[in-house]
Amino acid sequence: MPAPVSIWTSASDGQRDGWTISSVMIADGEPAEIVALVDEDCDWWDLFSETGLACVNILGPGQGGIADAFARVAPSAGGVFRTGEWQDSSHGPRLTGASAWAGVSLMTADPEHSGWGLLVRAQVDWIEIAEGIQALEHRKGRYL
After folding, report:
1. How far, in Å, CA of 67 to CA of 21, rounded?
2. Alpha carbons 106 and 102: distance in angstroms, whole number
3. Beta carbons of 102 and 124 less than 8 angstroms apart
4. Which of 62, 84, 125, 137 could form a disulfide with 103 if both were Cys (CB 3.0 to 4.6 A apart)?
5. CB 43: neighbour CB atoms within 10 A?
6. Under a CB-based contact definition with an 8 Å cutoff, are residues 9 and 16 in contact?
7. How far apart are CA 131 and CA 113, in angstroms?
8. Do 52 and 106 form a contact (C-beta atoms < 8 A)?
């Protein structure tokens, strides 16, 4: 099934980390929520669970290489944040050229498992959609 490609980022005391996540769903409501399947062994999960804040970057065209770097399946000399252009936000680093960004707050510090991942629920604190930038999609192992 087609899936949006997102990089979730967090920061604290000069430490930044992020992870590529494609298993994502938005649940409309008051407040709106975002639900994701997260690899509990990734380093970013420790930072997100500690800070409780993340910036969800919905990637745009041509940003598949950045997704691969943050998934740790492609090299990024000098660290993952050297791939792409990043700005600080209230919830974590924000990728320039993404199709959308959302600031989220972790709702459950100890989420249940779903399959091999953690079923993470986060409240959407703010969202911004870029004008005229199509979201990057992952289907059948390729970026579209």
Report:
1. 9
2. 13
3. yes
4. 125
5. 13
6. yes
7. 36
8. yes
Name the residue among 142, 118, 129, 93 with its Cα closest to residue 41: 118
Tokens, residue 114: 């779903």
Q: Which two tokens stand for residue 28?
A: 């409309």
Structure tokens at 141: 């192992």
Q: What are the tens digits of pLDDT across the range 72-110?
A: 999 999 999 999 999 999 999 999 999 999 999 999 989
Q: pLDDT tens for residues 30-63?
A: 999 999 999 999 999 999 999 999 999 999 999 9
N residues, the chain: 144
Q: With a threshold of 0.70, does the pTM exceed it?
A: yes
Q: How far apart are the first and last CA of the chain?
A: 12
Backbone torsion region of residue 123, taken as left when φ is above 0, otherwise alpha when ψ lies between -120 and 50, otherwise beta: beta
